[in-house]
Amino acid sequence: MNKENIIKHLNLGENHNIEFKSDCNNLNAIGNVVCAFLNTTGGYVICEMVEKGRIIDLDDTDAFIKNLEEFFWDNIHPKATIFCSKQKIGDKYTIVIEVPSGKDVPYAFHNNIYIHDGTHTKKADIDTIKDLVLRKQIEPERWERCFSLADINNDLSEKEIRSFIKAAKGKLQSNKIEVSDKISLLEKLSLVKYGRLTNGGDVLFGENPAIRYPQVRVQAVRFESDQTDDTYLDMKIYEGPLVSVLEEVFNFIKRNTPTISQFNKDSLFREDRPLYPWDAIREGLVNAFVHRDYSSFSGGIYVNVFKNRIEIKNSGRLPEGITPENLLDKGHISVLRNPDIAHVLYLHGLMEKLGRGSLLIKKACEENGTAPPQWIDDHFGVTLTIYSRFIHLEISLGNIPNTGGQVTPEVTPEVTPEVTPEIMRLLNIMQGEMSRKDLRTRMNLKDDEHFRKAYLLPAIEGNLIEMTIPNKPRSRNQKYRLTENGRVFLSKGQL
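Below the sequence we write its predicted structure tokens.
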């Protein structure tokens, strides 16, 4: 398999640093590249599964990867955690080495400092080393690396640390990280510096970080219908250690969404099916927690549960070069706002490291018979919308009683208009009367002709939206609103 095909299948953008190695056995050459990436912008080393001229047996791969990670841990100084994984490319496998941009530069491999210059790896000269040291001194510290106001002796959650160690023990051991001393453990994870807890450590393991940083609270609301200005049936504000909050929010969503009971054609017994793909919901929540802007006191995470959809709003923005449109058709290298927090969630088993969250969400929706997810990136942040299965099942859902548990709604056949995911997205963002420009802006669509043909005209032809000035379709004051049919369609939970 050639390099171009590897790039295609791994969906790695051309603006990122990638180096290919034909033999995994050349550890010194790989170590030079890893060191260089640490000292510059980070990158990926992609190795063919060849060792000493033979193809590495799949049964031996896990052991090989473990040894490779231990090699980096032992030979790169200061210590740096490097992640290696096996990735299938077509009918072949490669080993992908993910290297972050290091925050403790300069790094040395076998007592030599390397940098990555374009496509070349080279030893750093004395002037370059001086520049690396100066960069470290003047670069603004990430919020998660700044010192927290927490008392390291009194504000840590022992329960949360024990839970993390239990979940991550295997990965911690592979990187020779001792877990007997909690402070030493947090130091190895860059969550404690000079005996003080960082903001990242506080968010992850503080008993209640919201006391010091109110913006870390998460709000979850279940609305009665499909509008945020409608009556809500349940509302919670969650605070505490990050992973615990994540699980509580996930349970809130499950508690406030019904299941559908269907008879299997091959059985006399009913089968309960969820309205939403739980794997997609969980992945969406994890992404929001990892990518949010914790430094903004006006930011946060908001989870809205409607009759027809779930919205996860996050104050962070999409990385440069990533758009809502390309999230569905290709993965991307993770450009992490909070790499220390992401690292802990990775060790916890809650996320991958190759920027494929959007593809996992899309796949989970497809497998559940759910419409494709939708992302909106605007000045509020990023909103992920996951729709219910109603659009495919053509069912009518009555009022869901607020029982606090799973319920089985009455399912009745109903003739409904043909609604594409584009129309579904348009209807769900309509609020009162909106201009064509306002609609495109709200959906982050730049191509006006595509918007007209794929979104606007089909919705009008389906009698789901209408013009406010129908006798003057080209009027500069023209706006659009839901028809009565469109409102009824939404109120029945069809979307």
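The chain has three domains: 3-139, 140-414, 415-495.
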